[in-house]
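re: ur question from earlier - yeah i can do the single chain one, its not a big deal. heres the input i used so u can compare w yours
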Amino acid sequence: MSGEMQLPEKRALRNGVVVRLPQSLGEAVRTIPSITAIAQALPPLCGLFVICDAKLVPIFNLVPAVGRIVPLPENGWTFEGLKELRSLRPGAAVIFRGNWVDKALFKLVGIRKIFDFSFPLNAPELGFGQVRQCRAWCGKTSALLGGISVPEIFPVLESGDFFPPDSVAGKFSIHPKILLMTPGFARKREEYEPFAAAALHWIENGGIVLLIGQETDRRFNSALLGQLPSRRAFDLTSAMELPELLYLMRYARGVLAGAGGIVQLANLTRCAGVALADSQEFTKVAPVGSDWEVIYPPTGSGAPRNQVPDVLSALDRMLGKTGTEQL
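and the output i got, formated as tokens:
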């Protein structure tokens, strides 16, 4: 009968699914297309609930698929968090990265169906079965990245007045050639050369460079800024919250990052980019979209390969330059 409220099937999940997210930004962001797909598959009147570190709340507040968030402090579960989880009465749980404590607490609050996808994504001791599982998981997530549009994941970013003109994102988003740069792993080895060369090349082609990152990136970004022309490069280290950074990525021409969570974040906003991997382990940067290039370090003995030509060629492709136009 039309107009009548639809009720879940008798065998459907009780009140929805709770998802335990990984702690790191990169791994948590990789799950967004997956949890969006899970939410779309739920019966009527069933919700999707997320358990995550408090630092990830601003990102998942933007995801319409998430019905409710249970934030956890750095030291893990609290009595209040457990009480809130129990009040949600979920019928099933999905663990993307957790431990035996999460499983035990889920069982304690009455969750009977637990799907655990926790496995060491980057561990060198992966067995053959785990490698296959890992590749399958990355492949499915990558497919979802191509199948779910940005408005479905972050619809609020489509609003032109999401951030006012005097905000950081508002001031810079009007520029047609923004390159966002963050060092990631490179700050540990102070590998300025690829980043400095890329920034200068981008500026010479009429763009501006915005250096982003956390407090741990400040020293690297400050040193890099000293090598760049003033008024064309800006240090925005810790200057924006994650939602504002997402908004800026929607208008940026590209991202150059030393792998890490920023790569996954940019992929969800369809921002093109180049990732400098610190190892041959593909799971540290996968999955990435077709607009991204991953530059892996050389293998075998001998002196490290100069990555500058590879980076500049990738930026030229991002700018749409080919053949003799490239450096």
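Residues 50 and 69 are 5 Å apart (CA to CA). not sure if urs matches, ping me
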